[in-house]
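Morning F.,

Quick status update on the modeling queue. The single chain you submitted on Monday has been processed. Sequence for confirmation:
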Amino acid sequence: MTTPVSQDGTIKACEEVIFVTTLGAEDQAGNVSAWDARTGNLLQTFRNGSASPNTLCLLAGESLLSASITKPIIHFWNMLRQSQKHHKIICGGKVSSLSLTPDSTFIAAGIEDKIHLWQTNNGELFSVLSYSSVEVKRLKFSPTGEYLVAAYRDGAVTVWDLQSVVYYDPLQVEDHRPINTFLGHAGEVTDFHISLTNRIASSSMDFTVRLWHLLYKEEVKMFELGAPVMSVLMDHCEQTLYAGDVNGNVYAIDLHYQPAEHSIHLDLREENKGFTFHKAHNAAVRCMALTRDQSKLVTASSDKTVKVWTMMSPVSPLVITLNEQVSNLLLVPTPKAFVSPDNKPKRMLGILKRHVHGTEAEGADDDVTIEVIAVNKLEVTAAPLVQDDTVETLKQKANKLKKANDEMYEFALKEIVK
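Structure tokens below.
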């Protein structure tokens, strides 16, 4: 790895960092790189690995994770100076998606049609979730870490309650099931965004972006574009929806335009009717992200460029040119590994077990090369022996309270924006 840093080992005047991965060969230098979001300067490159789409994750501000494009391997880079090594984790199958909880306590991986859920610091496998025989294409945790959302190749989207799926009951016989399933899309889900209020915007190859709530099956709104939609994003206030299509167009859609209408068709000849758009790239817009202050939009494309757009002036963006097509984009505040590179690691990734709750034999993971460093271990004990109907009643009450709070928020929001 190479890092242009100041003499005291810190990267100065860098507020946010763009991590980018490309679809180059496994041994190609620069497949994973870090850039200054303000200036576009290259900060760091990571060698000897690659990143399949939807697999780039930042672990506790110290390490990067991504899955191999062609092999059943998870790549691991520790960014601290004393631990700057590349490791590989051998998995039971090719990983199609990766996601970490906001506090980096749990990691979820889509392997074929299953979702594997591990605790990061000790590698304990808590659950293997199965919904159907269709491949898992994308995983994301909600901003609070309460829920895990999964998108499948056939267009289905499932919602899993994290507390339920890591709740260990040795007497439990039935498999875990999702608490909600959304079946609105007719094609593969390409991307989805979870807002702070648990609203979801999902994009698909079926030319649509659909809005719905994480706990409800009913669709809130549907926008039909003129081409397959590859990426989607909402701002924090949930007033503007951004969508990038396969032709390189980026749409900015007013979510409060025609609130009574459920289905809205966006006609490029009528740009002023609730949306604007511009030709941002020469190929598909694969990924998008917003800066913390919501003033800039970052887009990444198959045309081998990443662009940083100032909202008030989208004419002359900051352009980062790459050697290969972009597969992942991650925009984060400057990681602490960049600010204090000589610190000792506080969080590492444990050996990922292959059987639920450590039932495998000794030495079964000899091919895994990650050292176990257990820090802040989360104690998970066996569930007390309670009646099944009592647990189910408590879950139903909790869901009712969540729904009531969501309805109150929606009502208050509508009254405020009148």
